[in-house]
Design goal:
The chain is of the alpha/beta class. It has 15 helices and 14 strands. Helix content is 44%, strand content 20%. The radius of gyration is 24 Å and the shape is elongated. 50% of the residues are buried.
């Protein structure tokens, strides 16, 4: 069954009162004289992502007999919560297979919504294969996260909302994992406004749709390695590939460093918490991955980020931006050296956040100690001034 504009329009009617009609919010920090960026934050849905749209439409389409047999799904986390919430709404038993490394927050949230969670494999594709096995054994209906016309139609309602709110939008930027979101938005938008550009964004470590498009057929990657677990997919769907290949104006890729920096930027400057997949569209804009002009809508697909991952992203982002430095200062093992180092940093305006004093470091002589210190700084120039001042006072640094 092909996905049509009519299916997306019908899905919109079914979703009224079920999902939030998220706002399209202008972002001054991301905009400049050549383009204006508007953010569509699907992290504000009750499940923290757009996935509930497609899951609800699929389960709503099932017969009473199919609902009684239950549903099963595979997911890296967001689809899991969408299926669990939709299943609970229709009082349908749900089993979700998730990778063993799925964020704890997503696993916990899925269980709290009433679904049975089975952890299997290291990436989404492993979970998918096991879910298919369980489906054959149980007779439950499989709710595919992206390669299903009803799911695609549900996700496409986001495109309708964008063009309703801003008919003169020039481009819509959307993340791609398996391609359900991009396919749905592309069908809706291109059917109504063929001149609006739709740009897909993948993680560089899991760019299966881009590889498939270049090959002219569905391609399976050897691996899908990225901090953006929501789009860590090795194989796109055949349905989604057909639609994306037909309608998308371009598919670009962003690496993990760019994604991490964007998560941090969105949190600091735009006051929005996103997961890696949710930040991908904005990362492509910030990284100038395509020609950006006019009014550009970026879909923030979700905000279900594990707090441990968020902490790592913040720390690494600050280190990369020069707003934090980690120093290994070699000093004589005598009184006053630690005080002197601290005073130098303080007088330069640095803020010490962590200290470790090691007198047993085997890299040093018996009369020396190693001070490992993390310092908050303003920028790279400020960091270099602190380093220079420490060296000018006779200390040396280890790499």
């Amino acid at each position: 069954m092909n996905v049509s504009l009519g299916m997306v329009l019908e899905a919109r009617e079914h979703l009224k009162g079920v999902v939030h009609r998220t706002d399209l919010v202008p972002s001054k920090p991301l905009s400049n004289g050549e383009y204006q960026v508007y953010l569509k934050s699907e992290s504000l849905q009750d499940t923290g992502s757009f996935k509930v749209r497609g899951a609800y439409i699929k389960i709503a389409s099932l017969t009473p007999e199919e609902r009684a047999a239950g549903v099963i799904a595979s997911s890296a986390g967001n689809h899991a919560q969408g299926v669990a919430l939709a299943a609970r709404t229709f009082d349908v038993p749900a089993t979700i297979v998730m990778p063993e490394g799925a964020p704890i927050a997503k696993v916990k949230a899925t269980r709290e919504l009433g679904a049975t969670v089975v952890l299997h494999g290291t990436v989404y594709d492993d979970a998918f294969a096991y879910a298919c096995k369980l489906q054959k054994e149980s007779g439950a209906t499989f709710i595919h996260p992206f390669n299903d016309p009803m799911v695609i139609a549900g996700q496409g309602t986001i495109g309708l909302e964008i063009v309703d709110d801003m008919p003169d939008v020039d481009a819509i930027v959307v993340p791609i994992g398996g391609g359900g979101l991009a396919a749905g938005i592309a069908v809706a938008v291109k059917s109504l406004h063929p001149n609006i550009r739709v740009i897909g964004v993948e993680a560089a470590g899991a760019a299966c749709m881009k590889a498939s498009r270049e090959a002219g057929h569905v391609v399976t990657l050897d691996s899908a390695k990225t901090i953006a677990d929501g789009i860590a997919v090795k194989t796109p769907g055949d349905e989604t590939f057909e639609i994306c290949n037909k309608y998308l104006d371009d598919i670009v890729a962003v690496d993990d460093d760019e994604i991490a920096q964007t998560v941090l930027y969105l949190m600091e400057r735009c006051k929005i918490v996103t997961e890696g997949a949710g930040a991908a569209a904005v990362a492509a804009i910030m990284g100038h991955k395509f020609e950006c002009r006019g009014k550009v809508a970026a879909v923030l697909s979700g905000g279900n980020i594990d707090v441990t991952m968020l902490s790592r992203i913040i720390e690494k982002g600050m280190l990369k931006a020069g707003r934090m430095i980690k120093l290994r200062v070699v000093m004589e093992d005598k009184p006053g050296q630690l005080t002197l180092t601290s005073r130098i940093i303080a007088e330069c305006g640095g803020n010490v956040v962590q200290v470790h004093h090691d007198r047993s470091c085997v890299e040093l002589g018996i009369n020396h100690a190693l001070l490992e210190v993390s310092v908050e700084t303003q920028d790279r120039d400020h960091a270099e001034r602190i380093i220079g001042e420490i060296k000018r006072n006779g200390f040396s640094l280890l790499a």
